[in-house]
C-alpha cells in the first residue's frame, strides 16, 4: 500500500466516524431489531344493574392489537353477601377476521323488588377486561368469570360462580385468598365453580375471590 492510499483510507474512516458521531449517518442496526414481537394491550369497561335489571358490558380491542387472547368478567356488589344476586347469562366474542375483535357479557341482577324495599337496593357491577394482541391466536379464548367475598374475623365465606348459558361447562376453578385464611379449595360441578374459606383472625378482615373458566 502506498503512502497516498493509506492516507486516503484514514481520511475516509475519519469522515464516516465524524458523520456517525454527529448523527448524519447511523450505524447499521442489528438484524434482530427488525423483528417485530408480540404487542399486547389491556382494555376494560363496566356496567351496573339494579334490581330485576338485565344489562351488558361491551369492550373492543384497539385496532393496533385487534385479537382477544383473554377475557375476564368480574362482578362486584356493595356487600359480599349479595353476590348471589349476580348471574352471568351470556358471553359473546367476535371471530378473528382481521378486524378488531369485540366481546360482550350479559348479566342479570336477581334481587326482587320486595327484597329491595325491605333490605335496600343491591347494585351489581360487572367489569369486562380483555387482553388484546397484535398476533392472531389459534382459536377463541375461553372466558373467565370472577366474584369476590369479604370475610369478617372468626367467620367463614363461600362463593359460587355460574357459567353463562352459551358457555355452560365449568372447566376450571381457581381461588385466591389472604395468607392467614384457611382455604377449603375450589371445585367445579356442571355449570358451577365453588370455593369456601375461614378467617381465623378476630381483628383482621380480608377478601377472597373465585375465578371460573367456562367452555361450551
Task: Provide an overview of this structure.
- The protein has 216 residues and is mainly beta.
- The chain is 12% helix and 48% strand.
- The chain has helices spanning 3-22, 113-119; strands at residues 40-49, 54-60, 67-76, 86-93, 102-109, 124-133, 144-151, 155-162, 169-176, 182-189, 192-199, 206-215.
- The longest helix has 20 residues, at 3-22.
- The radius of gyration is 28 Å and the shape is globular.
- Mean pLDDT is 86; it is low at 1-34.
Blueprint of the fold:
Layout: H1 3-22, E1 40-49, E2 54-60, E3 67-76, E4 86-93, E5 102-109, H2 113-119, E6 124-133, E7 144-151, E8 155-162, E9 169-176, E10 182-189, E11 192-199, E12 206-215
Parallel strand pairs: 3-7
Antiparallel strand pairs: 1-6, 2-5, 3-6, 4-5, 7-12, 8-11, 9-12, 10-11
Number of helices: 2
Gap between N and C termini: 78 Å
Number of strand elements: 12
Strand content: over 45%
Order of helices and strands: HEEEEEHEEEEEEE
Taking Cα atoms only, what radius of gyration do you get, to the nearest Å? 28 Å
In one word, what is the shape? Answer: globular
Biggest sheet layout: 6 strands, mixed
What's the mean pLDDT score? 86
- Low-pLDDT ranges: 1-34
Percent helix, as a range, is: 10-25%
Strand order of the largest sheet: 1-6-3-7-12-9
**How would you classify the helix and strand content by structural class?**
mainly beta
What attributes characterize this protein structure?
12% helix, disordered N terminus, mainly beta, six-stranded mixed sheet, 2 helices, three-stranded antiparallel sheet, 48% strand, 216 residues
Amino acid at each position: 500500500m502506498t503512502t497516498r492510499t493509506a492516507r486516503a483510507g484514514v481520511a475516509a474512516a475519519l469522515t464516516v466516524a465524524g458523520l456517525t458521531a454527529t448523527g448524519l449517518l447511523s450505524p447499521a442496526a442489528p438484524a434482530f431489531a427488525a423483528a417485530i414481537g408480540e404487542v399486547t394491550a389491556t382494555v376494560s369497561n363496566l356496567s351496573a344493574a339494579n334490581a330485576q335489571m338485565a344489562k351488558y358490558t361491551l369492550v373492543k380491542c384497539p385496532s393496533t392489537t385487534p385479537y382477544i387472547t383473554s377475557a375476564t368478567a368480574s362482578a362486584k356488589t356493595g356487600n359480599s353477601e349479595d353476590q348471589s344476586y349476580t348471574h352471568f347469562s351470556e358471553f359473546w366474542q367476535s371471530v378473528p377476521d382481521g378486524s378488531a375483535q369485540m366481546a360482550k357479557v350479559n348479566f342479570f341482577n336477581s334481587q326482587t323488588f320486595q327484597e329491595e324495599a325491605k333490605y335496600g337496593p343491591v347494585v351489581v357491577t360487572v367489569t369486562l377486561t380483555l387482553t388484546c394482541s397484535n398476533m392472531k391466536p389459534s382459536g377463541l379464548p375461553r372466558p373467565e368469570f370472577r366474584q369476590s367475598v369479604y370475610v369478617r374475623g372468626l367467620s367463614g365465606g363461600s362463593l359460587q360462580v355460574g357459567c353463562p348459558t352459551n358457555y355452560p361447562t365449568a372447566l376450571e376453578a381457581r381461588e385466591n385468598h389472604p395468607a392467614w385464611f384457611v382455604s377449603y379449595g375450589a371445585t367445579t360441578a356442571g355449570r358451577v365453580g365453588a370455593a369456601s374459606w375461614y378467617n381465623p383472625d378476630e381483628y383482621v378482615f380480608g377478601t377472597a375471590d373465585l375465578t371460573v373458566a367456562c367452555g361450551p
